[in-house]
Amino acid sequence: MSLTSGLHSPRTPLRRFLDRELSAGPRPLRESFRAQHQTDNLLLPGPGVGTEAGNVGTAIDQRLRLAFTAAAPVDLATEAGIDLTGGIGRGAGLRMRAVGNELAARLAETVHRLDLDNRTLSMDRAHDEEEDLARMLLAGAWYQVMARSPYGFTYTQLYLTAMEDPGGFTLDRLLQLPNQDMVDDVVHQLYLAITGPLEALRARTQAQDCAGGPTFPGVGITADADLVVDGLLLDFKSTKHPFAQGLSKHTVNQLIGYLLLDTADRYRIDTLGLYLTRSGVLATWPVEEYLDLLGTCRRDLPTLRTVVAELLAGCQADAIPYSQEEEDQANELLERLAPVIEAGHCPVCAQPLPDFAGRPRKYCSRWCSARATTIRKRQTPAPGRPAATVPRPRKEVVDPPGDWVVVSLTPHFRR
């Protein structure tokens, strides 16, 4: 299972669960993000970047990770992609894998020689060294495509060049493929980071307190974040549209997904953050503030982690149910994992309903009334099937008391 695929469609059990739990939706968090994004500066890519913008983003992400910790010079996705190319037929695949292994060895040697995570040195190195690094990281990004989307890999310059002339495909040939605009884009984004808050964050931390590309074993779903820096889980975004895409709903869910998947509290995450590589903005939120802005007032973090673990163990949470049996299984599981909300509390956010002399109120605010409709629509499991309702307040039962869930009445999210 994959966190990325689980967040992609609103019909997967994982997305349906998060849409129900995040009662405020992403808007309050986006407003907080806009308040922190106090700059009009935006570094735009050159015309030669074009459709390679995603691979440039992958390369700068890895370069920034290496500035904090060089413990893993070659990330897991690149290693996996290199290995997978060996399965491509007609000999070209074996050549791609051999060149990829050479690339990995050279990259590791370069990272260690340049001592990239040394805090007594600046984040950057000499310009020609940074250009060489950029070319290697861009080549590594193409191999990552193979690990994430084998079909997409067939459109990369790496694949097309190797298939055209397997015998002439060498490491030097590979490193010539990224055009100068792509290389410059990676280097310029690094230079921007040196003048901003990311350099200050690096300076006050130690390499041993950082984890590049953290993973979350033991939860039955693959996910790799960008960086954990002394309790701060940081995601890098190289988008040209920081307000429209910098904190998209997918990114909002991605950050909370990483937080919830750390069930053993291995990384001791106390803050979530987003660094915009093209505007040089670092936006951060303490975990409790992040959860409050999203409206996760129904359960506290340990409880949320436990419930997510049950969801992942009980169904294929990252995929749209294929058969009627899978559909029924997912619906039953989601219903069982629904929060218990006592009578007299709002069925959306679980806050106590305000006293009202007239007709009893069903929701605590107009906001929650509107959110109830949105949540109800998003719980529709498949076309033609009835929509699941927002969990209604359940009547108290005396036996057994152990079935009740304690509702955390934390301060309500901002409206």
Description:
A 5-stranded mixed beta sheet has the order 1-2-3-4-5, with helices on both faces. The protein is mostly helical. 49% of the residues lie in helices and 6% in strands. The longest helix is centred in the N-terminal third of the chain and has 23 residues, at 92-114.
Number of helices: 18
Q: What does the oligomeric state look like here?
A: single chain
Mean of pLDDT? 86
Number of strands: 5
Global morphology = globular
| Poorly predicted ranges | 382-415
Order of helices and strands: HHHHHHHHHHHHEEEHHEEHHHH
Percent of residues in helices comes to: 40-55%
Short description:
This protein has 415 residues and is mainly α. It is 49% helix and 6% strand.
Key structural traits:
single chain, 415 residues, mainly alpha, five-stranded mixed beta sheet
Summarize the topology.
Blueprint: H1 3-8, H2 13-21, H3 27-36, H4 53-68, H5 76-85, H6 92-114, H7 127-148, H8 150-153, H9 157-164, H10 171-176, H11 180-194, H12 197-203, E1 210-212, E2 227-229, E3 232-237, H13 242-246, H14 249-261, E4 271-276, E5 281-286, H15 287-294, H16 301-314, H17 324-336, H18 366-378
Parallel strand pairs: 3-4
Antiparallel strand pairs: 1-2, 2-3, 4-5
Helix pairs in contact: 4-7, 4-11, 5-6, 5-7, 6-7, 6-9, 7-11
